[in-house]
Amino acid sequence: MDLRSLLRSSTSASHVAIEANPRLSRLLSPNLDSDAYFDVLARYYGFFAPLEAELLASPFALSDMRERVKTPALVTDLAVGGRSVNELPVCSFVPPISTRAELLGVMYVLEGSAMGGMQIARHLAGFEFTRGRASFFVSDGAAVSARWKSFLAELESLPESEWASASASAVRTFEALDRWMAGS
Ligand code: HEM
User: Fold this and answer.
1) With bands split at pLDDT 50, 70 and 90, how would you rate the model's confidence at 133?
2) Which atom of ligand 1 lies closest to the CA of 19?
3) Architecture of domain 3-182 in CATH?
4) Please, which of 25, 35, 143, 165 could form a disulfide with 101 given CB 3.0 to 4.6 Å?
5) Which of 4, 15, 43, 106 to mutate to test the pocket of ligand 1 (most atoms within 8 A of CB)?
6) Ligand 1 mean position to 12 CA, how many Å?
7) 119 lines ligand 1 (CB under 6 A)
């Protein structure tokens, strides 16, 4: 068993749960409307902005973390709908990042979400209100797989004694996002 397999199995129930989150499942509905789309983006912003700020500030940050952050894409996509991020609520219960294991557990969830994002992007392409600019979900396919590969290489360097902590951190990240996405 490698760490990626452990993370995948320990978070598989959380992944199923988050796909059923009412706010996120609305995103995949054929009846998605502009308000629901921008509402989901605003909620993603409220989670990614504080969490990515912590990832960037961490002494364990990956050297290419600046290229990995998705908050700027959220700001851009919200602006397409005339939404400013200034007044948006941000999540006060993002998971803690005080060790490299916790950082990698959090990153597994954020980086991995780009995989499902590409599927969501294909669905969103059919809606006029994204103006072809759903950049948070679209990302660049080739860059996403290169970043995912280099992230998996990072995972391999974590000592086995810290795997349980990384795994707990990934589960906490899913749970916090699910709870945040369920809020109003
Ligand atoms: C709601 C719609 C979602 C759909 C339809 C979806 C779909 C998918 C799909 C199809 C994959 C597999 C991609 C592949 O192996 O090529 C995947 C992987 C993954 N997704 Fe999601 N996803 C969704 C939401 C999320 C969210 C909100 C998160 C976390 C923020 C997330 C985290 C992950 C992770 C970590 C993986 C990688 C698992 C691994 O292979 O190790 N997903 N998702």
Assistant:
1) confident
2) 1
3) Up-down Bundle (1.20)
4) 165
5) 15
6) 9
7) yes
| Share above pLDDT 70 across residues of the chain, in percent, rounded to a whole number | 100
Percentage of the chain exceeding pLDDT 90: 85
* pLDDT computed for residue 126 by the predictor: 87
**Tokens at 25, concatenated:** 């499942």
Q: Work out the pLDDT band at 174, boundaries 50, 70, 90.
A: very high
User: What is the residue with the minimal CA distance to atom 10 of ligand 1?
Assistant: 116
Whether residue 24 has its Cβ less than 6 Å from ligand 1:
yes
Q: Tell me how far the alpha carbon of residue 40 lies from the centroid of ligand 1, in angstroms.
A: 16
6, pLDDT greater than 80: yes
Ligand 1 touching residue 123 (CB < 6 A): no
